[in-house]
UniProtKB/TrEMBL annotation:
Catalytic activity, EC: 6.1.1.14
One of the GO BP terms on file: arginyl-tRNA aminoacylation
Taxonomic superkingdom: Bacteria
Similarity comment: Belongs to the class-II aminoacyl-tRNA synthetase family.
Record-linked NCBIfam families: glyS
Protein name per Swiss-Prot or TrEMBL: Glycine--tRNA ligase beta subunit
A GO MF term: ATP binding
Subunit structure: Tetramer of two alpha and two beta subunits.
Source organism of this protein record: Sphingomonas hengshuiensis
Length: 774
């Protein structure tokens, strides 16, 4: 169906919609504004009305939309529905007539096709709005909503985030009449709950913001946030302190107030014995307060709260009340902290055996055992240099102990951090305490990357264990779902490796991790763990867990075989998830401006899982392909590869048809390179020919470039390898200009195809150019 929308008639008119209710949670307000705008635009579009510009506001008590320059009415709309051909069978015509409700005579015929054309009369925008408002309320996607009043007895009654109390709907100065959940629209709203008694009558959208400001309501959430930001800084500066800024807390305070007034208060200095992160989190999460620092950068015994009234006493009573509540919260935190300090971290470890990490991967205690062994191995094998292996193992064994402390039980966000404090307090070496504190890092893209060797070893081991374990049991991310944060863990591994220049084969690290998971499985099954490395092998219909040449366990390849306490043997996926890392590497490097196809080109060579070396190769490749030599070599390579793909099998058949002895005649492999090269080598002794100058020049260039490129790659001088390849550009161009590859002489044809195969293989020493776009 095609619809021709009419233009507006008359001058543009502003429309105001205020949906007033009891308190809207601050965390829901930003999304609610987006949803209100989206639903409003959708409802108007159904009537063929476009809203040129929309403004939305949210306060704790109201959700507001102003649509600017709406038409007073729409003109007639002409709708056209395409039907069957005029010569179609009667059944098709009858079906179309039933669908449109028209007769055959009312249809229009054009070029042998029937159309149903109808004129829909224009509608007044006010009529459209009166229908749209109830539809928006009913369709609103609040994360949580409720029914209220007598209407709530029916499951069909409207729902809202809190009971809806009033609707202002003005099109210009005209009230749009509608009724939702027993609330009738009008032009009257309410001002500030405490500062303004009585109703506020709105004349139009144009005076809405101003009239509410007079009633001490600032409807613009951005203006409220700016008032809080400036006022909080000034309050801190007035006390000789510096405000600890927090954008999320700023937005939350703006969502909690309609007339914000920042106030500064103090708490007992005795609470400063608690770690500053605990104080800040207590103030932020429980009370929505900002904290301050003194001139030395240390946390001060001060907080900034945001009142919703302009108190006559300057806010003294408000500050006193808030200080009393904060003191109670800090007392709890101080109790947890001091109680936790009485128990050493290693004494908490037995409790980890009662916490399930994953039903198929054992307990947190099992994970701690694996991570401790892997962290030590990473140091002893030279992956992480400069760390004491005993310290790495010690830190890994203590890293999860704070999960069972009182403080982390109250504030899970502090896991790791509190362990670091407790480790330092009990006299652990500084590098051990730091590793306990920071082993979860980096958590997100903007998080700091650890550089202390012991911390790097533990953080890397923790993430490798998680990744390998969940790939082992095939609990993989799907689409946007990643319940075990495996993408984040892979990005963490990549950032740890690249930031610290860790050298080694990622596949080897993951293999070591899977061995430790297999050991966990054996222990859980009550079997002895062999001293030799474990590995999986497949024999017939069975999978075998081997230690050296000895079979440890055999089980059928199906999902009913018991392993890991019930997981099927098919869930033991032995291959390292290198491809998964390749995808994450592309995401991580995209922000650095690295092209994803170049990462694919290097990964496609296979066997390259040293991420530092891989990225050095990628960066050199990106610098090369953006040059004229690189672009022309890429074009020459693709031409050579396309010829090989198309012509090589045909060359084999052609030579076979001549009746001459041909080692290619029984081979159907379309990849001609190695076969053709062998053919040329053996046949050259029987029949050689004088190469054309451009052909000979390419051979000479390859003879020089191939060893240079190979030596440069071996030395990890990838820029030098690119320079060696660049010397092939002119000879390749001349070859394609002057030489006929598909020569009538089958021997020349085979030799020239083999030469192109040498070109392709020389380029593949650096990257698979077939993966490069352009």
């Amino acid at each position: 169906m095609s619809v021709q929308l009419a233009g507006a008639s008359g001058k543009g008119i502003d429309f105001l919609l205020e949906l007033r209710s009891e308190e809207i949670p601050a965390r829901m307000q930003a999304k609610a504004r987006e949803d209100l705008s989206r639903l409003f635009v959708g409802e108007l579009a159904k009537a063929g009305i476009a809203a040129p510009r929309i403004t939305t506001y949210a306060t704790p008590r109201r959700l507001v939309l102003i649509a600017h320059d709406l038409p007073e009415a729409t003109e007639a709309v002409r709708e056209e529905v395409k039907g069957p051909r005029a010569s179609a069978p009667p059944q098709a015509l009858e079906g179309f007539l039933r669908k449109t409700g028209l007769t055959r005579e009312a249809l229009t015929e054009r070029d042998g096709v029937l159309f149903a054309v109808t004129e829909v009369p224009g509608r007044e925008t006010a009529q459209v709005l009166s229908v749209a408002i109830p539809a928006i309320v009913r369709a609103f996607p609040w994360p949580k909503s409720m029914r209220w009043g007598t209407a709530s007895l029916s499951p069909e009654s409207p729902r809202w985030v809190r009971p809806l109390q009033g609707i202002v709907a003005l099109f210009g100065s005209e009230v749009i009449r509608c009724e939702v959940a027993g609330v009738t629209s009008g032009a009257v709203t309410l001002g500030h709950r405490f500062h303004h008694a009585g109703p506020v009558t709105i004349g139009s959208a144009g005076d809405y913001v101003g009239k509410l400001r007079e009633a001490q309501v600032i409807v613009d959430q951005d203006e409220r946030a700016a008032i809080i930001a400036v006022g909080a800084k000034m309050a801190a500066q007035g006390a000789g302190l510096r405000l600890v800024e927090d954008e999320g807390l700023l937005a939350e305070n703006a969502g909690l107030t309609e007339w914000p007034v920042p106030l500064i208060g103090r708490f007992d200095e005795a609470f400063l014995s608690v770690p500053p992160e605990v104080i800040q989190l207590t103030a932020r999460v429980n009370q929505k307060y900002f904290v301050c620092r003194d001139g030395d950068g240390k946390l001060a015994n001060a907080f900034v709260c945001t009142a919703n009234i302009d108190a006559t006493d300057g806010g003294d009573r408000i500050v006193a009340g808030n200080a009393k509540v904060l003191a109670a919260r800090l007392s709890d935190a101080k109790f947890f902290y001091e109680t936790d300090l009485k128990t050493r971290l290693e004494d908490q470890l037995p409790r980890l055996d009662k916490i399930v990490f994953h039903e198929k991967l054992g307990t947190v205690a099992d994970k701690v055992e694996r991570v401790a062994k892997l962290a030590r191995w990473l140091v002893e094998s030279g992956v992480v240099e400069g760390a004491d292996p005993a310290h790495a193992e010690r830190a890994a064994r203590l890293a999860k102990a704070d999960l069972v402390t009182g403080m982390v039980g109250e504030f899970p966000e502090l896991q790791g951090l509190m362990g670091g404090y407790y480790a330092a307090a009990q006299g652990e070496p500084a590098d051990v305490a730091a590793a306990v504190r920071d082993h979860y890092k980096p958590v997100g893209q903007g998080d700091d990357v650890p550089t202390a060797p012991v911390t790097v070893a533990v953080a890397l081991a923790d993430k490798l264990d998680t990744l390998r374990g969940f790939f082992l049991i095939e609990e993989l991310p799907t689409g946007s779902k990643d319940p075990f944060a495996l993408r984040r863990a892979a990005l963490g591994v990549i950032r740890l490796v690249t930031a610290n220049g860790l050298r080694g084969e990622l596949g080897r690290w993951l293999t070591q991790a899977v061995d430790l998971h297999l050991e966990t499985a054996l222990r859980r099954m009550g079997r002895e763990v062999p001293s030799e490395p474990l590995y999986l092998s497949v024999q017939g219909d069975d999978r075998r867990l081997m230690a050296g040449d000895a079979e440890v366990l055999r089980f059928p390849i199906d999902r009913t075989a018991p392993f890991y306490g019930g997981v099927g043997a098919a869930g033991l996926h032995p291959a390292p998830p290198i491809d998964f890392f390749a995808d994450r590497l592309k995401v991580q490097q995209r922000e650095a401006g690295v092209r994803h196809d170049l990462i694919d080109a290097v990964f496609a060579l296979g066997g390259e899982d040293d991420l530092v070396r891989l990225l050095a190769r990628v960066h050199a490749l990106q610098a090369f392909v953006t040059t004229e030599d690189g672009a022309n070599l890429l074009a020459g390579y693709k031409r050579a590869a396309n010829i090989l793909k198309k012509e090589a099998p045909g060359a084999s058949r052609h030579i076979a048809e001549t009746g001459e002895e041909d080692p290619l005649s029984e081979v159907e492999d379309p990849e001609f390179a190695s076969i053709a090269a062998e053919y040329v080598r053996t046949e050259r002794e029987k029949r050689d020919y004088a190469r054309e100058p451009a052909e000979a020049a390419l051979v000479t260039a390859l003879d020089a470039a191939e060893p240079r490129a190979a030596a440069a790659v071996e030395a990890e001088d990838f820029a030098g390898a690119m320079a060696a390849l660049a010397s092939l550009r002119a000879p390749i161009d001349a070859f394609f200009t002057d030489v006929t590859v598909n020569d009538a002489d089958p021997h020349k044809r085979a030799a020239r195809l083999a030469l192109l195969a040498r070109v392709r293989d020389a380029v593949h020493r650096v990257a698979d150019f077939s993966k490069i776009e352009g």
